[in-house]
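Repro:
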Amino acid sequence: MQTAIQPLLGAGSTAAIDSAQSYRLESFPYRHKTIINDSVCSLRMPDDAMIDSGIKPEDSLIIETNKKPQDGMIVAAIIDGAMLIRRYFKIKNKICLTPDNVDVASTETSPEKFQLCGVITKVIPALTAQSSQSS
């Protein structure tokens, strides 16, 4: 299934960014994404794995694709075809992706199976019916 990329900034109906990095972004197996420029994109939080950090399902995540993750940073990654938003830790020759929700299991993988999409640099809360009525 091909996903149309809608630009957040700029003209046109699709983002045509000529780089290997943007190709990687365009091939995300995730439909709620927007390419902002060649090193920044946004995704919607797909689940409640980071709820204890205040990141809720449907919140928009700003992702810098050219940043290298350090231990403890929140990243977007693809493991076995699944998009995960988790805390990144490199432990010896393994990568551990840890949720901030005790009900969600951590994921451990080898660097060969780990596809980094980028580092989360900003969270934009989703507008809910309850919050829009209280304004």
